[in-house]
Write a structure and sequence with these properties.
The chain is of the alpha/beta class and 358 residues long. The chain has helices at residues 16-33, 54-62, 82-95, 110-116, 123-139, 175-184, 198-214, 236-257, 295-301, 309-323, 339-353; strands at residues 2-7, 37-40, 69-72, 75-76, 102-105, 143-146, 151-155, 168-171, 187-189, 226-232, 304-307, 327-333. It is globular, with a radius of gyration of 19 Å.
């Protein structure tokens, strides 16, 4: 089983420099501890994410790491001209000595589309054209493209990536996104969530794998990382205490930014968010209302692994045996969780959990 780390670079403290320092130190620790890759989300216009240009932070992190793979998780392609995105991340690949893993997506937060003056209903088409352009610029001496959203005259990109073929992933949570990924020739990563149960996710993953195989891929080479909130401490009680308030902030903030928040219209192509629904105000309360974000519920549903090392091992074995998961991305820094607690969680996970799956 492969283990990555992931962060949205959330900024509840209204101190982005602090967020950048903590994220960098955490990736440096993950590099030392043997994690496979580090993914950094792109978000705009809110404290939910303070890294609107992941390429900048990834390039800085590359200077302090030596082996861990580095990538956006994800680069929201409709928000950046594809020629610009291709050049940005080619630089990351060069600076990191060929360690770029390119996570991509089409975005989902209405506030972000408004910020750029874009129509969310066109995001899937914009994403598809961007992928074709970026790959074409990276893998050819010169390239041209004519589409509905972008027209590129025959040009050459400089710099191009160090790798001959940069691995490309797309974030997927709906059946339509999984199917589209195979057509584009990019692999998917995903996560169990309030709108995609573990069982639904596994069905989507199975459908995606079949689609890749039908297009000539070797089934054994299809790699689907699954993102799971992870926080480990010496005891179960300590892990829960450290994660409780940060999880509350994370889910309340996420809910306020999701399609349909406040009863607003959900754009065509984002219908799966209709199942999101309202959230309770406390992730540990067993009171009336929606309890999907209690730590018990998050653990049970596979959205999170919060507990001690023994619990983490049992949860991962269940995910592996029941759902066939063999590549986990650990969402380690959420809701302003204490930096020292995150570093300790990484240490315990690497020392006590990872060897059980080597």
């Amino acid at each position: 089983m492969k283990f990555d780390i992931f962060t949205v670079c959330e900024d509840p403290h209204d101190d982005p420099a602090r967020a950048y320092r903590e994220v960098t130190d955490q990736v440096v620790a993950a590099d030392r501890l043997g994690f496979n890759a580090a993914w950094l989300a792109e978000h705009h216009g809110s404290k939910y994410g303070s890294a609107p240009e992941p390429a900048v932070l990834l390039s800085a992190i590359a200077q302090r790491t030596s082996r861990i793979l580095l990538g956006p998780g994800v680069s929201i392609l409709p928000f950046t001209h594809p020629v610009h995105a291709a050049a940005q991340y080619a630089m990351v690949d060069q600076i990191s000595n060929g360690r770029l893993v390119f996570g991509t997506g089409r975005g989902y937060q209405p506030k972000e589309f408004s910020l750029f003056g874009l129509d969310a209903e066109k995001s899937r088409q914009m994403y598809s054209e961007s992928i074709q352009i970026i790959r074409g610029l990276w893998e050819n001496e010169s390239f041209e493209f004519a589409g509905d959203h972008f027209t590129i005259p025959r040009v050459s990109l400089n710099p191009r990536p160090l790798q001959d073929r940069v691995p490309i992933w797309v974030a997927a949570a709906s059946p339509e996104s999984f199917a589209a990924a195979a057509d584009l020739g990019v692999q998917v990563f995903t996560q169990p969530s309030l709108r995609q149960t573990m069982t639904e996710m596994r069905e989507n993953m199975s459908t995606a794998v079949d689609a890749y195989v039908s297009r000539g891929y070797d089934r054994d080479t299809v790699d689907i990382p699954v993102n799971v909130i992870v926080h480990i401490a010496e005891t179960d009680a300590q892990a829960r205490q450290q994660a409780e308030a940060p999880l509350r902030w994370h889910f309340e903030t996420l809910q306020s930014l999701a399609p349909g928040a406040g009863g607003t219209k959900i754009a065509k192509g984002y219908e799966s968010y209709k199942s999101y629904g309202p959230l309770s105000t406390s992730p540990t309360a067993a009171a009336s209302g929606d309890e999907r974000t209690s730590i018990d519920s998050l653990n049970q549903s596979g959205i999170a692994i919060v507990g001690d090392a023994e619990y983490a091992i049992s949860a991962l074995r269940r995910m592996r045996d029941e759902f066939g998961l063999d590549h986990i991305s650990c969402f380690i820094r959420f809701g302003g969780i204490d930096h020292g607690a995150v570093l300790r969680s990484l240490e315990i996970f690497a020392r006590d959990v990872m060897p059980e799956f080597s």
